[in-house]
Amino acid sequence: MKINASLNQHATKKGQELTSSSNSKDETQNKTRRGFLQHTVLGSAFAGMTIASTSHVTAQTLADAEEPEITQSVDVLVVGGGTAGHVAAIQAGRLGAKTLIVERNSQLGGTTTTAGVAFPGLFDAWGKQVIAGIGWELVTESVELDGGTLPNFAKVPQKHWQNQIYTNQFLYAILAEQKCAEAGVEIAYYEFPQSVTKTDTGWQVDCVGFGTKRRIQCKQIIDCTGGAEVVGMLGFPRFREEERQPGSYLFMLGEKHEPGRNQIQRLYVHGADSTNSRTATEANLTGRKAILDRVRQSKQRLMHMQPETGFRETYRIQGETVITVNDYTSGRVFDDAISYAFYPVDLHTKSGVRPKPLKPGTVPTISFGALIPKGSRNLIVAGRSVSSDRLANSGLRVQASCMGMGQAAGVAASLAARSGSTPLEIPLKEIHSVLREHGQIVPQKA
Fold first, then answer.
1. Can you say whether the dihedral through the CA atoms of 370, 405, 112, 206 is positive or negative?
2. Which of 24, 140, 362, 410 lies at a 20 to 30 A Cα distance from 5?
């Protein structure tokens, strides 16, 4: 017993020594770390470097945050919050429609923000503005907030891109969210439809995000996915070419990127295809690998890189109207025109791009029927998947035109939800009247 007691006392004493030694060692390490941090801060300050400060905000606690499955009813569901989608949603919300955007990425704005083509256009043609409305409101407010400048539309530029607008992509995305909130629009990021089913009153849409299954009952759907993906789910016809225009991956080597002030470098990603997650992943991996190779070869710093490839071309719908390149280049004013469009015929190929400018005075228009999938009800499309042939689409796909389509789709879907009808049954005069009330320029025949 004495031996065991002695051993126990020895063990206890040894344990205390080890604990004391461990605590002393930890304290020494903590002092070393603190000293290192202090030295780093002081050293950085003396070197003229800025130490970023931390500020605080608190996210709202969601009542149903722990629920994996939720159900809700809305008037208008906008699938895709890109160039056309966020404008469509804001317009629907401003008209009093209960509106939800489902967006698979983490921000609104699409090509302007996530792809980084923060150089939207064209809002003008031949010395006057031809597209305005909500898209223009967002662009001008973001430029003004950023202390930037807007072009003088009274002056006809020598090259079309000279009247495109340098825009701070980060400010634009935040302003788009603010406009949605003000219009009462709910945003669901990181989600996308898995199934769409017709109901007596419209649609049931089942969406999935990580940790979330959302069932939505809605009266109208606006498909702004860029590839008419909801249209495809429902089995309505879509078409595309075997070979697609290259995508662009935007980045900056060597020089500082100043958002809203300069353009950045672009890498063509040939074969870029946004059909599904697998093809989009392949495009992004290909682009990033090529950028890494350039960093190594040039020995320059990578100063900026967008999170993903910007895609130019994918599926287009077969609409009630198909806009042809002859319609586009002749400036045909459709009887049911809901927006102007203006841009050269701009087909990108493996050898680059040679824009074909429109003849002086020519301003194309967009037919309302080109937004309606043929034979559909309670469904409308806006954006680059507009019903058009390939060459016409190469001019129609740009931001200002897509914003114009989005606003018209938002008006039509809201009025249809309110009246219990379908977009194609809404009188065109009523659509035009509401568009004018909300600042859009409506095409008129000479």
1. negative
2. 24
CA distance 101 to 83: 13
Alpha-helical segments (H) within 200-324: 229-233, 277-298
d(CA 301, CA 319): 47
Token duo for residue 184: 């009462």
**Which residue is listed with tokens 């996210």?**
59
Cα distance between residue 191 and residue 205, in whole Å: 12
Cα atoms found within 13 Å of the Cα of residue 291, Cβ hemisphere only: 27
Measured torsion, CA atoms of residues 368, 324, 396, 374, in degrees rounded to the nearest 10: 40
How far is it, in rounded angstroms, from Cα 303 to Cα 254? 6
Q: Residue-wise over 43-79: b if at least 16 C-beta within 10 A, else e?
A: eeeeeeeeeeeeeeeeeeeeeeeeeeeeeeebbbbbb
Tens digit of each residue's pLDDT (9 = 90 or more) over 416-446: 999 999 999 999 999 999 999 999 999 998 7
175 burial via Cβ count (<10 Å: 0-12, 13-18, 19+): buried
Q: Any bridge partners for residue 74, and if so which?
A: 218
The H or E element containing residue 214 is: strand 212-223
Say if residue 17's pLDDT is above 70: no
Name the pTM for this structure: 0.88
What the block records as the tokens of 386 is 């507009």
pLDDT in tens, 44-87: 444 455 566 788 999 988 888 888 899 999 999 999 999 999 99
The mean pLDDT value of the chain amounts to: 90
Closest Cα partner for 98 from 229, 220, 230, 228?
Answer: 220
The domain ranges of the chain are 69-241+314-437, 247-305
Distance CA 337, CA 349 (A): 30
User: What is the third-level CATH fold of 69-241+314-437?
Assistant: FAD/NAD(P)-binding domain (3.50.50)
**Burial environment of residue 182 by CB neighbours within 10 A (0 to 12, 13 to 18, 19 or more):** exposed
- Element holding 365 (H helix, E strand): strand 365-367
Q: What's 319's DSSP letter? A: B
Could you give the CA distance from residue 292 to residue 305 in angstroms, rounded to a whole number?
11
CA 228/CA 187 separation, integer angstroms: 20
Q: What is the pLDDT of residues 183-229, one digit of tens each?
A: 999 999 999 999 999 999 999 999 999 999 999 999 999 999 999 99
- Asked if 192 contacts 200 with a C-beta cutoff of 8 angstroms, the reply is no
Do 331 and 423 form a contact (C-beta atoms < 8 A)? no
Cα gap 300→308, rounded to integer Å:
21
Nearest 5°: phi and psi at 338?
-120, -10
